Amino acid sequence: MSKNMKLYITVGLVVLIWSTAYTLMYYSVYSGGFPAEWIPAARTTLPALAITLYVYLSGHKLPKLSDKRWLWYGLMGFLGMTAPFYLLAKGNAHGVESGISSILTNGVTPLLTIILAHFFVASERLSFRKSIGFIIGFIGVVFLYLPENLSLKLVENWQAQNYILLVALSFAVAAIVAKRAPETEASVGAAIMLITAALTAFAIALPTGLPGGHFSNGILLALFVLSVFSTGLSDILYLKVIQLSGPSMIGKINYLVPVFAVLFGMMFLGEAFSWRSVAAMMIIITGLLVARNDENE
Prior knowledge:
By secondary structure, this protein is mostly helical. It contains ten helices and no strands.
């Protein structure tokens, strides 16, 4: 199989896994009633055990707790997994649909990263083009807070959508931390992230008590897929894409994920088609393209 074919297949799998994660989250929390507080634990426990076992089987070992990598990669685990998984679930529990969630997360995260990088990454200062791109993208975000007829009032669940904005902020801060973190072997870094994510996830979940009630096989299957594929396998495929084509391909994938998340939400969850959402998505993508063209010059 050629390198290009491997890349296309891997990219297709990443888009499929990342986009369906929004569908499965909404299905599990809003439709299935699974408590939002337990979503991070459900998503991180199995991958944490698996990657830790892999680290030792591959001849590596985890550093001592006094090693500064625990702070850096632990922070990445909390900001890149525990916090956003919980906040996304809270937004879904309050009725924010999967399509809107994907547009806000994948659109706002890179916009916020541009701003944060200006202050915390010396080589990524804010330029005129990046500023224009951010403003364009922000206009797209505003569209998602307006009703379908675009009248000057907020949508009913605008406060719930703020949970998703916090998801984007958490991912953006995690990206900045990743740029400043000390280098380490990939599997060791991933293990620290997942172990920390799982531990902090249980710190959120346990005070609420064990999930009550009976959950259908469909909900349990959705949670299993979110854990093994959306949290575990997706990280491996993510690194594979970078190996095959470089980091720029990830940016292109982020343009595709909301499109398919919206489609899957319509197909499997009965979410209504919205011209407002489409317009917002296109405006945000335009803003990101303007900002990222500056990076390519």
